[in-house]
Predict the 3D structure of the following.
Amino acid sequence: MLRTALRRLGYTVAGGAAGTAMVYRNDFKQLEFDLASASGPLVRLFDVETSHKIGILAAKMGVFPKETRPDPACLRTTVWGREFPNPLGVAAGFDKDAEVIEPLLALGFGFVEVGSITPLPQPGNPKPRAFRLPEHGAVINRYGFNSEGAYAARNRLAAFRQKQAAAASGSFPAGLLGVNLGKNKLSEDAAADYSTGVTKLAPFADYLVINISSPNTPGLRSLQGRKELETLVKSVKQTRDGMKWAGPLGPPPLLVKIAPDLTSDDMEDIAAVALAQGIDGLIVSNTTITRPGPIGEDPVGKETGGLSGKPLFQMATEVLRQMYTLTGGKLPIIGVGGVSSGEDAYAKIRAGASLVELYSAFAYEGPKLVPRVKRELAELLERDGFSSVAEAVGADHRVAAAVLAK
């Protein structure tokens, strides 16, 4: 039985009983990642939210494998003066309450973005509120910022940083930490909520995110309007800049996460505010309320909420491409939406992303996705003659400009 399972994973098993047989492939570490992912079909027999809780519990219990193989040198990159071991991160939504940062970094992610974290605890929307579309590699959710609140997150983030600081050199997984901030559903003062998040959580973050693009909190996306965004950013930046910051890097960069469902005018307004107000970067994009292609014909596709996964890839990447153009490539962008391969990550980078996040594909494929995406991305960079991720950022725009210049 073990032999059969190993062969299905692509290994060659030769000689001896199952316990003593020789197993061949690139290395045994990959076997560890593959076996950790093999339980995925069983876990997915449960509903989406229960499966997610099982994944968090597994990470807490040390079931996730630990990556010990070094990343290819070409994947190292520096953004906002901060060094990332690789450009691949976990999008907000997986580790909502900052419970499993270390296990996720140990998997080999270059960074982890926790949240969205609201100032006060809130349960989110009624259940069921998440639905799979496995034949499309997609998920629809309407969680509504379910969060244990900033106080609980602060305690966990402080413990994480203390453990990181106390660890012997090289004994703690490399990688950076992003903190994604949300507002409480019943709050009438969005700026106050985000500023509270900054006050409580910014000291532990390598970067901060103002999430104004979830479709599951009433009125949230209206904050993407020019006037509303300008007012919000001014207030949140004032809070961040009024805090004391030790060390040469200063305060954590402040990013805004936007929706994919934007008009050209919307994007122009966001770009203008971002440049004028000194936003440090953008995350493009959140989930979509549209139902592209066959999704709209699927019974599950009629559920309300945000669609993520493969069907989002083209839409999110096009918005990324336009935002890079509108900002003149001056702002680092984290590309997210539909990434399930190194080719997808590479397309985001060429369109203008300095970093890339994924979530839905990780939920479907498990830990083995992480080394695969990094390996494929490194191969594509080498194929096209790029010695680093940074060299490839926005490459499509340069190619297009060169063609027009002829």
Notes: The chain has two domains: 1-28, 39-405. The chain is about 40% helix and 15% strand. The mean pLDDT is 92.
